Amino acid sequence: MIGEDKHRFVIIMDKDVLKKFRELAEKDHRSASNLAAKILTEYVEKNID
């Protein structure tokens, strides 16, 4: 179950990109969704005023 302070985010991407992204996540000992959340969080925190 997802907590009340969490939300799902759906994206559509090329299959080859997803395959490579999953490989990167595995190298970082993360799931693809966990890595995506980390990347998005860091991007927002870096770019928000």
Identify low-pLDDT runs: none
How many domains, as an integer? Answer: 1
Number of strands: 0
User: Structural class, from secondary structure content?
Assistant: mainly alpha
Number of helices: 2
What is the helix/strand order?
A: HH
Describe the structure.
The protein has 49 residues and is an all-alpha fold. It has one domain (1-49). The chain contains 2 helices and no strands. The termini are far apart. The mean pLDDT is 93.
Short description:
Helix content is 59%, strand content 0%.
Give a topology summary:
Blueprint: H1 15-27, H2 32-47
Features:
single chain; 49 residues; mainly alpha; 2 helices; globular
